[in-house]
Amino acid sequence: MTGAKGYHSYRGRESKLKIFLAILLCLVILAAAAFIVLQEHIVFDERGVPHLEIPWQQEEPDPAPLEAEAPEAPELDLIIQEPPGPPAVYAFSLASGPVTRANWTATAGGALLSSAVPYNAVAVTLKDAAGKVYYDSGAALPQAVKVKKDTAEVLAEIAGEEKSLVSIARLSCLLDPVTARVNVTDMGLKNTSGYAFYDGKNHTWLDPAKARTVEFLTALALEAADMGFDELLLTDVSYPTEGKVHKIAYTGEEVLSDNVAALLQALKTALEPYEILLSIELPEAVLATGPDETAGLDLNKIAPLVDRVYAVTEPAMAETLGAAVKAVSETTDFVPELALEDQAAEGKSCLILPQGAA
User: Fold this and answer.
1) What is the mean pLDDT of residues 298-307?
2) Of 6, 53, 106, 231, which alpha carbon lies 20 to 30 A from 240's?
3) Whole-model pTM?
4) Distance between CA atoms of 177 and 174, rounded to whole angstroms?
5) How far is CA 228 from CA 97, 111, 157, 159, 162, in A?
6) Where are the beta strands (DSSP E) in the chain?
7) Helix/strand/coil for 307
8) DSSP assignment, residue 252?
């Protein structure tokens, strides 16, 4: 059967048109995509003119110039100068007893005018090992105070603001035949029977572990500071070592050196508001050979609590003893107590004892 006229020719034209339109649509889509992609790489120069920068055509930026290396600092030889220590102490001693105008003038005049030693300090005994107090003390027992009419005036010259020498106050502490005998219960060292302990020389002692003893010695120390003394030199700071010491009824800590250290700490604390050095006199053997357990003396516990350690010795031992003190405490100085003026060495501190006192 014959089909409709012209059918085949019409079908061919429609197929070609569809192909053409499909190709055109793909080209439009590709052009749009390319435009979008290229738009991300369009940049404007400083005049506002757009141009295309394709990533693979961009030149690598020049590397940042290296900073010039700083020249090495020259090595410096630093010399650290330690602050100079205190000047050497050349001290002479007044004889034990009430200070008077006559003995002060005679002793000071002889020391300063006729001696080859360049004295710059004087040591005055305020309380001795007999329990006597040589100034008008409000803390001591009235029967212990021994003064002369001009004692207060002369002490004011020695320790006051107008003084010409460094002033050192010697204060005997625990060996006290007066106070310990009167105040046995509250202050004195007792024996196992409950009575006052007497050493081999029939002397009584204060007990460093008793609160009243600490209060008493602190009061004396503060009086010396109030008088204007530059240094407080404590002597007889120990337990007795002679006599029937095995019969002592010890109180306080079992280790006796702890009681002595506690007493020193209390004195150190009380004197902190004052510009006064705290020093102690120790037996030579404690520095040279080690602690004395009977006496309650241990340099390792004592030296860090004081500014200076004194000891009666010979010039040949001074350097050894000084090294022993420094080995325990770098901030604590050693001062030898010498019997004769001609034993003094230039540049070395010393305290010259009254003749015949060593």
Assistant:
1) 98
2) 231
3) 0.77
4) 9
5) 19, 22, 10, 5, 10
6) 42-44, 50-52, 90-93, 121-127, 166-172, 231-235, 277-281, 308-312, 333-338, 350-352
7) coil
8) S
